[in-house]
Amino acid sequence: MMPTPQWARAHTNIALIKYWGKKDPKLMLPANDSLSLTLADFYTDTLVRFRGDCPGDSLTIDGQPVSAGALTKAVRVLDEVRRRAGLTLPAQVISRNHVPTAAGLASSASGLAALAAAAAQAAGLHLTEQELSRIARHGSGSATRSVAGGFVRWYAGTDDASSYALPVAAAPALLQDIRVLAVIFSDQPKAIGSTAGMAQTVATSSYFPAWTERAERDLAALLPALAAGDFPRVGAIAEGNALAMHALTWAARPPFTYFLPATLALVQGIQAWRAAAPVPVYATIDAGPNVKLLTLADHVAAVQEWLADHFPTARVVVTHAGPGIQYYPERKEPR
Ligand code: DP6
């Protein structure tokens, strides 16, 4: 069939159980299962056109051609789609990020998930979220989970076919009420990207075997807490898992950390506040200095007030649970 250009939108996600380490970098198989929440306010729209009149694959983000590294990740996704569709045409990819740089959230998860969906649809493949997540995985691990909405589990698997993401059952009230406050201390690019940081950790951190065991245990405890809508339990497990991930980097050779002094001050401040007042608020941190606070809708105002008092210079963006992939025809650029 003739390829039909197509827009797809995917949202970024925040992991409650982190992916940190690959057991197979070529196939992009993670060392452990991970679990995330897809976020409503941060997303990428991507248009894919397969066309014979282009010399090779091209990708612009917000009108700018991307770096060689970013293009390589995109080409891995496009190659998977071409292989499945029996296509050889190059692709023109136009991508628009709606991830405010001020939010300090990576756009690679939403970007590569949107690319997988737009490319598959444009190639005439009508795939389930599960199949799309396998394709997105070839671009970036965290993109695997951005294909679905709400709480999403990435099954590590043992080969290409068994490493995919699926939505996870959660109490409806929890899905509706959970809030994420992104607290931004720095929007500078990090010194060690996640791909390199996790590779260094796998190769040298003496805690790595303990981490994969810990992550599987945290996930097993999180699933019933999500199903029961037990937010304090969900938050405590997520916070503990994030700190365990960051402990790995200190035990790597050479040792490193993504924390700034403000990162630690916020984690300690939140823990002390929680001990003193009955406010359910928990921290999680990705491969950078910024902190995402998890809380419930009723407590957002109190958390914002506390942040304004204790971290007056930090920028704060509030969001909630978001949906999976959405499609738009070529002529209807989404807004
Ligand atoms: C800390 O998905 O960016 O955000 O697979 O090498 O592209 P690659 O890495 P990436 O790593 C994400 C790491 C994390 C944790 C998580 O999202 O689970």
From TrEMBL:
GO biological process: isopentenyl diphosphate biosynthetic process, mevalonate pathway
Molecular-function GO terms, alphabetical: ATP binding; diphosphomevalonate decarboxylase activity
Domain Mvd1 C-terminal: 180-315
Domain of life: Bacteria
Keyword Lipid metabolism listed: yes
Domain Diphosphomevalonate decarboxylase-like N-terminal: 10-165
Family: Belongs to the diphosphomevalonate decarboxylase family.
Protein name: diphosphomevalonate decarboxylase
Native source organism of the sequence: Schleiferilactobacillus shenzhenensis LY-73
